[in-house]
Amino acid sequence: MGKVFFELRYYLIILIIFIFVFLSLVFFPNFSFVSNSADYEILEVTREKIEVKNSDFALGNDINNSNQIFEIKKNDTLLNLLKQSGLKDSFIRALIKTKGSEKLARIKIGDSLEISKKISGEPKEIFLTSNGFEGVLAKFENNIFTIKRFSRPLEKLERFASVIIENSLYESALNEGLSDSLIMDLVYIFGWDIDFIFDIRPGDKFDVLYEDFYWNGIQVKNSDIKAARFIRGNKVFTAIRYYYADGTKEYFSTRGKNVKKAFLRTPVDFSYISSKYNLNRKHPVLNKIRAHTGVDYAAPKGTPIISTSSGTIAFIGNKGGYGRLIEIKHTEDYSTRYAHLFKYKKGLKIGDKVDQGEVIGYVGKSGLATGYHLHYEFRVNGMHTDPLTVKLPDAEPIIDSEKDKFKRVAIKMINRIDDLYLQIYAINQ
Q1: Which residues are CB-contacts of 281 (< 8 A; sequence separation ≥ 6)?
Q2: How far is CA 97 from CA 61, 91, 92, 154, in A?
Q3: What's the average model confidence in pLDDT over 118-137?
Q4: Rg of the Cα atoms in the chain
Q5: Residue ranges of the alpha helices (H) in 28-124?
Q6: Long-range pairs for 28-32 at CB < 8 Å and ≥24 separation?
Q7: How far, in Å, CA of 183 to CA of 390, rounded?
Q8: Which residues pair with 221 in a beta bridge?
Q9: Fold category of 272-385 in CATH
Q10: Phi/psi of residue 268, each to 5°?
Q11: 377, 294 Cβ separation under 8 angstroms
Q12: Mean predicted confidence (pLDDT) in 230-255
C-alpha cells in the first residue's frame, strides 16, 4: 500500500511540473531573460524596426547595383574617392553643383563613403557616414541628385529593469547591467525631487522601462527612457515620457505635472559648500559682520557654471566685491546672480537669451574672495532668498489640449511597468 502511495505521489509531482511548464509557455511565449546575479533582472521585451521617413534604405542589396565602400584615410578627398570608384566626370560635376554637396565633402578620417552604382555605371546612391547608420545621402533619380540627412532603420529593443538599491543608486544600477548614460538620465529625471546623495537609503527601488537602439547587432545610441518609477520609503515618484507634435520630449508625473522644476537647484559641479546663506556672517576679507545673501560653492578654477533656468542676461561685468558678475532675469518675479567668475562664456552680452543648463561662465575668485568658488544668489521679487531652501517653482505642466492623449499614454505605461514587474517577481519566487 505504501509503495502504491509513493508511486502516486511521484506521478502527481511530475504532472504538476508539466502543467507549470505548459502554462508558462502559453502565457509568457515572447519573453527571454538575461541571466543576472542580482535579485531583479533586466527583461528583454520586444523588438521592432524603426521606420525611416526620409528615404528608401541606402545601398540596398539589389543584384543590379554594384556597391563600393571606402574608409576615409589621411589626405583622402571626396573628389579623389569618386574618381577612384569609377564614377564618370559628368556625374561628379553634377554632384558637386548640387545644393548640399558641401556636407558630403566634409569627410573625416575614419568615416565611410559608400557608393552604389547601376550596372550601366549610372550612380544610384552615395552615402557618407561616421557610424554606419546615419549621415549624408546623395540620391540620383530622374537624372538629378538630391542630398539630405539620412538614417538607416535601426532595431529598437524595449527592455525593463527593476532594481533594489543596496549601497548607492549608481553601484546597484551598474550591477544590474544598466549603462552610465541610462543611470545619468534617471538621476536627471528624478533629481528635481530626490537628492541622490543624501536622500537614498538601502531598500529604495526603481523600475525603468527603456529602449535600446541597434545597427547590425551593435548598440549605436544611448538608451531612451519611456517610463520610470522610483520608490523611496513610502513615497512614489513616476515619470512618463511624452512627445508633443513638434517632437519635443518631456517627462510628466501621472497627473501631468512636469518632473522638472523651473530652476535647477545648483549651478555648478561643486566640491563642497564653503559658506551658506547667512545674514549675520562675518566677512572673511573685511572681517566684519556683513550679510551673506547667497551660497558659496567651492570648485576648481575654470569649472563650468550653468544657468539654473532660462532667462535674459540683465547684467554682465565687474561689480564691486562681486568681481565678475552675471545677473539673469528669468521672469518678473525671479532672478539669479553668479559672482566671482574667472571668465564669462565667450560672446555673452546683456540682452542675450540663455537656456536652462547652458554654460554662462567659469569659476574664479575675482572681487572680494579668498579662494576659488561660485557665489550664487536667488532673488524673488528683488528680495534675497536662501537658494538651498527656497521652494522652486514648477515647470509648465502638460498643456490642456494634450491632457486626454497624455492620460492614455500614462495609463498604458504604468500598466506596462506593473505587468513586467509581476513577470520578474513571479520568476524570482
Answers
A1: 275, 289, 290, 291, 292
A2: 28, 10, 9, 32
A3: 88
A4: 29
A5: 78-84, 89-97, 101-104
A6: 28/423, 31/423
A7: 27
A8: 213
A9: Glucose Permease (Domain IIA) (2.70.70)
A10: -155, 150
A11: yes
A12: 92
Strands, E, within 203-271: which ranges?
A: 205-215, 218-232, 235-243, 249-252
Query: In 3-state terms, what secondary structure has residue 175?
Result: helix
Residue whose C-alpha cell reads 532660462 in the numeric block: 310
User: How far apart, in whole angstroms, are the C-alpha atoms of residue 235 and residue 223?
Assistant: 26
92-126 CB burial, b ≥16 within 10 A, e <16: bebbeebeebeebeebeeebbbbbbbeeeeebbbb
Determine the 3-state secondary structure of 91 from DSSP. Answer: helix
Cell of residue 270, nine digits: 561643486
Q: How far is the C-alpha of 367 from the C-alpha of 409, rounded, in Å?
A: 52
What is the Cα–Cα distance from 339 to 142, expressed in whole angstroms? 61
Chain Cα centroid distance, residue 30: 28
As beta bridge partners, residue 239 has: 228
Whole-Å CA distances, 248 to 241, 243, 244 = 10, 6, 5
Dihedral pair phi/psi, residue 348, rounded to 5°: -70, 135
Q: What is the DSSP letter of 322?
A: G
Amino acid at 19: I
Q: Which of 184, 181, 234, 236 is nearest to 206 (CA)?
A: 236
Give the position of cell 575654470.
Answer: 302
For residues 48-70, average pLDDT: 62
CATH architecture group of domain 29-50+156-261+396-429: Roll (3.10)
Which residue ranges make up each domain of the chain? Answer: 29-50+156-261+396-429, 65-151, 272-385
Question: Is the entire prediction scored with pTM above 0.70?
Answer: no
Closest CA to 180 of 191, 190, 165, 169: 169
Of 181-185, 412-416, 419-423, highest mean pLDDT: 412-416
- Asked if the domains 65-151 and 272-385 are classified in one and the same CATH topology, the answer is no
Task: Report in angstroms the alpha-carbon separations of 204 from 183, 235, 236, 237.
Answer: 15, 10, 10, 12
**Do the Cβ atoms of 81 and 69 come closer than 8 Å?**
no
CATH 3.10.450.350 for domain 65-151: yes
Could you give the CA distance from residue 92 to residue 115 in angstroms, rounded to a whole number? Answer: 12
